[in-house]
Amino acid sequence: MSEAHEARDPASAVDAVDAVDRVVARIRATYGRWNRQTPIAQMRADWDALFPADVPAAVHAVDADGVPCEWVAAPGARPDRAIAYLHGGGFQLGSPRSHRELMAALSAASGACVLGIGYRMTPEHRWPVPLDDGCTAMRWLQAQGLAGDRVAVAGDSAGGGLALALLLSLPAQGLPRPAAGLTLSAWTDMGARGESYDTRAAQDPLHQRPMMRALARNYLGEAGDPDDPRASPLCAAPVALRTLPPLLLQVGDRETLLSDSVDFARRVREAGGQAECQVWPGMVHVFQQFPAELPEASRALREAGAFLAGHLGCTPVTQRTPA
C-alpha cells in the first residue's frame, strides 16, 4: 500500500478540504431530491446531470453485440489500444454519460481510447446480468482486434468491483488476460465486512455499512451470494487471484470502502500477483470523477493513465512531442 502523495502545506490542505466539501454538498443535494416515490429513471437522469456532457474528446455510441457502449477518445489517442470502463453507481445509477469526463481524462492520460460499457442495472436486472454484459463487451472488443496486451479493464465503485469480477471471469470465458486493471474506490465485498466501515465511519460523508448492504441485497437478489467471487472479488481463491494482470487500485482515505481496495491488493500480492494500492489523503469516494474541481483528481487520473500506458504500450497524449 502506498499513500499518495506528499503532505501539503497547511493552507493548501485547508483549500483541499473546502473543495472536497463543495463536491460532497453537490452530491448530497442530488440525493436530497429523492424519496421512495422517485422513479429510477429520474434518479438516473439527476445523477447524469451532475457531470459535464461536453468533453475535449471524440464521443460516439456503439452497440457491442447488444450492450450499449460509448467510445471516448482524446485527440491523438491510439485506436488500436482500448480501456474497457465499467461505471459506478451502486448497480442502479451511472452510465457512460455520467462518466464521460472521467473517461476523457483517462484517455488523454493513457493515450488509449476508452470504451464505456452501459451494462444493465438493478432493479430491472440483477446479478449476474452486469457481469454477463461485461463479458459480452470483452468478446466484442476481441472481435475488433482489441484483446490481450491491446486492452485494459477499469472501473470505479460498483464498477470497480465489477471490473475485478470480470477479470477473474475471463479465463472461464476463453478470453485472454488483459494487459492491466485499474480500479477507483472499488467495491470488492458485498458483505461490507472491512474494518474501514468502522474506522472511517465518522469521516465518510457519503457511504455507511447499512447503505452498502442494502445496495448489495438489491443487486444480488435471491440468487446471488455475497461470498461468490463473481459478486465479491475479495472472496476469490488465491489460485484465481494469480490469474489477474498487474493492478493499480486508487482509494480515498476518507471512505468506508477503504478496506475493499487495501485488502484486495494485499490478497493479490499474497497470492503472488501484482497489485499496488494508492491511498489518497483527505479524499472521498471516487474523487477522480471531479477533475475540474479537485487537483488531486487530476493527479490521480494522470498517474492511473501512466500506469495503463506503461502496460498498453501507449504514450499519454499530453506527453507527446509535436511532429
From TrEMBL:
List the Gene Ontology MF annotations in alphabetical order.
Answer: triacylglycerol lipase activity
Q: Which domain of life is it from?
A: Bacteria
Provide the alphabetized UniProt keywords: Hydrolase
Looking at the record, the residues that make up the Alpha/beta hydrolase fold-3 domain are 84-288
Please name one Pfam family that this protein belongs to: Abhydrolase_3
Name the InterPro entries on file.
AB_hydrolase_3 (IPR013094), AB_hydrolase_fold (IPR029058), GDXG_lipolytic_enzyme (IPR050300), Lipase_GDXG_put_SER_AS (IPR033140)
**Protein name, entry field:** Alpha/beta hydrolase
Which lineage is the organism of this entry classified under, starting from the top rank?
Bacteria, Pseudomonadati, Pseudomonadota, Betaproteobacteria, Burkholderiales
